[in-house]
C-alpha cells in the first residue's frame, strides 16, 4: 500500500514540479486569495497543447490542491520536500529502475513512519467468534463491573494527565520551499 502511494507521490511531484513559482497571492480582499497562473505553468514547461495536463489543472482536485498548498507559511510535508529538493534525483533515476525502486521504498518507509509515529504500540484486532460459538455451554457470564474501581482508575488517569505536557504532534509551520523554477523541467 505504501509503495503504491509512494509511486503516486513521485508522479505528482514530477507533474507539479515548479508549481509554487506560478502561485500568485492576491491581498486586495480581507482574506488573501491564492491564484494559480495555469498559462504560465504550461508555457514555461512547453506543454500548452498537452490536453491531459490542461484537464488536470482545470479540475476541482487541483483547485483544492492550490488552496490547501498555496499558502507560503504552513506545515511542510514529504510532498513539499520532493518538489523542492528531489527534482534532480527523480530526473536521474528515470533511466535506472533499481535506483527508482530504492527511492520508492524509502518514500514508502517515510509514509509508514508518518502514519505510525509510535511503532512499539501495536493494535491487535479482536478475532470474530467462530460459527456456533454462542451455542456453547462453557461460556462464563460477563463479570460485573466494579464502579468504584472504574472511578479510581479514572481519577488516577486524570491526575497523571494533568501533570503531563499535552500530547501534540510536532507540526510546526514554516516557509514552504519554492524549489527550482518551472523552466528547468522542460
From TrEMBL:
<feature type="domain" description="UDENN">
    <location>
        <begin position="1"/>
        <end position="76"/>
    </location>
</feature>
<dbReference type="InterPro" id="IPR005112">
    <property type="entry name" value="dDENN_dom"/>
</dbReference>
<dbReference type="GO" id="GO:0032483">
    <property type="term" value="P:regulation of Rab protein signal transduction"/>
</dbReference>
<dbReference type="InterPro" id="IPR051696">
    <property type="entry name" value="DENN_Domain_GEFs"/>
</dbReference>
<protein>
    <submittedName>
        <fullName>MTMRD protein</fullName>
    </submittedName>
</protein>
<dbReference type="InterPro" id="IPR037516">
    <property type="entry name" value="Tripartite_DENN"/>
</dbReference>
<dbReference type="GO" id="GO:0005085">
    <property type="term" value="F:guanyl-nucleotide exchange factor activity"/>
</dbReference>
<dbReference type="GO" id="GO:0031410">
    <property type="term" value="C:cytoplasmic vesicle"/>
</dbReference>
Amino acid at each position: 500500500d505504501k509503495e503504491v502511494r509512494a509511486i503516486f507521490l513521485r508522479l505528482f511531484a514530477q507533474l507539479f514540479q515548479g508549481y509554487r513559482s506560478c502561485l500568485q497571492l492576491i491581498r486586495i480582499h480581507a482574506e488573501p486569495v491564492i491564484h494559480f497562473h495555469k498559462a504560465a505553468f504550461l508555457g514555461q514547461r512547453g506543454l500548452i497543447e498537452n490536453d491531459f495536463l490542461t484537464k488536470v489543472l482545470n479540475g476541482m482536485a487541483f483547485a483544492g490542491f492550490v488552496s490547501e498548498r498555496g499558502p507560503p507559511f504552513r506545515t511542510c510535508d514529504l510532498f513539499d520536500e520532493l518538489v523542492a529538493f528531489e527534482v534532480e534525483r527523480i530526473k536521474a533515476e528515470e533511466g535506472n529502475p533499481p535506483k527508482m525502486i530504492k527511492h520508492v521504498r524509502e518514500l514508502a518507509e517515510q509514509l509508514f513512519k508518518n502514519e505510525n509515529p509510535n511503532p512499539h504500540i501495536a493494535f491487535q484486532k479482536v478475532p470474530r467468534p467462530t460459527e456456533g460459538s454462542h451455542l456453547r455451554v462453557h461460556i462464563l457470564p460477563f463479570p460485573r463491573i466494579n464502579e468504584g474501581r472504574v472511578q479510581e482508575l479514572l481519577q488516577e488517569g486524570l491526575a497523571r494527565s494533568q501533570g503531563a505536557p499535552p500530547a501534540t504532534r510536532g507540526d510546526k509551520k514554516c516557509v514552504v520551499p519554492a524549489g527550482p523554477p518551472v523552466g528547468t523541467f522542460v
